Amino acid sequence: MVVFVLGHLFIMHYQHVPASTGAAFVGRRWAGAAWRAFDWVLLALALSHGVAGAHAVLRERVRGPRARTVLDGAAVAGATIFAALGTLAVAAGSRAAGGSPGPLSVHAWIPAALLGGLLALATLTYLALLGVAAAAAAYVLRRFPAGRWSYPGQWAFALNRIAGLGVLGFLLLHVADVAMVPFAPDLYDRTVAGYALPYLAPMEILLVTAVVYHALNGLRLMALEALDRRAARAHVLSFAVVVVVTALLVIPSVVVLLQGRP
Ligand code: HEM
Q1: Nearest atom within ligand 1 for CA of residue 222
Q2: What is the 185 CA–ligand 1 centroid distance (Å)?
Q3: Do residues 165 and 57 touch, judged by C-beta distance below 8 A?
Q4: Contact residues of ligand 1, CB 6 A cut-off
Q5: pTM value?
Q6: Buried b vs exposed e over 190-218: b needs ≥16 C-beta within 10 Å?
Q7: pLDDT, tens digit only, all 262 positions of the chain
Q8: Taking the chain, what is the end-to-end CA distance rounded to the nearest angstrom?
Q9: How far lies 135's CA from each of 166, 205, 217, 235, in Å?
Q10: CA 211 to ligand 1 centroid distance, Å
Q11: Alpha-carbon distance 51 to 36, whole Å?
Q12: Best residue among 121, 160, 245 to mutate for probing ligand 1, ranked by most atoms within 8 Å of CB
């Protein structure tokens, strides 16, 4: 999954600017079966892992057996609907043509709904960032009190969880917008053009940061487990390395985003 997720991120956020990847761009990519297979495998891996992760997070909170059954059903239904939507788009992909109308083009409300979803997700992301910054500031101002948050592993865990849930939120919206490529390329172009809104630019940077951090932190956890390194020193050092490498890897995408915005 690391190869597929980071490969996709590289193409969309380091080689191109998302706001310039309209239906013509996707159509050119999907003209080849290999890229369609790549995108479908990415969808299957990211969706199943992300929904399973969010399901596990919510199941920790939900205690009653009936509520848990509802949650299980919602996870299966959600994953099935989005998997079907994405599969349909990838399978029909070669019909995509930039700018021209398709059978769903009469539904002009779709781009407005998707952009509304993106704006809501961006607002949630900024609130989450403010929450993390406020928690870190309070921790420093109280001179690093012992107890909750005194161990870097707790910060690594919280950031990993926020990043995983945020990326899943974006993935669901993204599957819904890409599904328009074969059926309403003109509406897809309108949605993608909305990515250029200045309000969404910090979210794009945070999305890249979340993906890179979550992937590196996941690899870190797997490596520590495989190497059987339980020592606090190994955890702290590896967390510091993940934070620094994430920051360094995000910088080029910020440069691309700032230089390439239409
Ligand atoms: C790029 C490759 C990825 C790797 C290596 C990876 C790795 C991991 C690992 C190791 C965990 C368990 C963390 C723990 O037990 O504390 C996890 C949890 C999770 N991941 Fe990923 N992941 C990746 C991509 C993604 C993507 C693309 C999404 C969203 C679509 C996602 C969403 C989640 C969620 C929601 C959780 C649950 C968080 C929690 O339990 O605290 N991950 N991931």
Answers
A1: 10
A2: 32
A3: yes
A4: 1-2, 5, 46, 49-50, 53-54, 56-57, 157, 160-161, 164-165, 167-168, 171, 214-215, 218-219, 221-222
A5: 0.93
A6: bbbebbeeeebbebbbbbbbbbbbbbbbb
A7: 999 999 999 999 999 998 888 898 998 898 889 999 999 999 999 999 999 999 999 999 998 999 999 999 999 999 999 999 999 999 987 665 556 788 888 899 999 999 999 999 999 999 999 999 999 999 899 888 888 788 888 999 999 999 999 999 999 999 999 999 988 999 999 999 888 899 999 999 999 999 999 999 999 999 999 988 778 888 999 999 999 999 999 999 999 998 876 6
A8: 31
A9: 18, 21, 20, 21
A10: 9
A11: 22
A12: 160
Q: CA-to-CA distance for 82 and 102, rounded, in angstroms?
A: 21
Tell me the two tokens of residue 246: 């994430």
